[in-house]
Specification:
Length: 139
């Protein structure tokens, strides 16, 4: 039973955090895809994935806002002829350098969500694909 719990936890992490498909999870963990699908339903992985992505987006939005506020305060100090604290300048430069990574991450998430919506609109969600696979391949 301990092995199942470990596999379940790793499969959940792969689905929620790493955004792996059920097929990828089954292949990596050497389990049947149907098992992964059952675990997905049992553990509400879809809800957890959505919450995880929403939390990441919220963090990135806060990061953008924090960077804007920091930039505004530095600009105000410069315009007032005040000396800008080197720590604030360092933090601002560091944040600006990371914003590209944040944007790339957001683009990947947005594309994935758009692709998922297209699949759902076409009726090709995981459940339908499993049914087709079962009928065609007898799995």
């Amino acid at each position: 039973m301990a092995k199942k719990a470990q596999l379940f936890a790793e499969a959940e992490r792969l689905y929620v955090v790493e955004q792996c498909t059920l097929g990828e999870i089954a292949s990596r963990l050497r389990i049947h895809e149907k098992t992964a699908a059952n675990w997905k339903e049992e553990g509400d992985w879809e809800g957890k994935r959505h919450k995880h992505l929403k939390g990441k987006r919220a963090f990135h939005e806060e990061l953008y806002e924090f960077t804007r506020l920091l930039m505004r305060s530095i600009k105000e100090d410069l315009e007032a002829g005040k000396q800008v604290d080197p720590g604030r300048m360092f933090a601002f430069n560091n944040l600006v350098g990371r914003l590209k990574n944040v944007k790339e991450y957001e683009d990947v998430v947005a594309k994935k969500e758009k692709d998922d919506e297209k699949k759902d609109a076409a009726g090709l969600n995981d459940e339908v694909l499993r049914m087709i696979e079962s009928e065609v391949f007898g799995h």
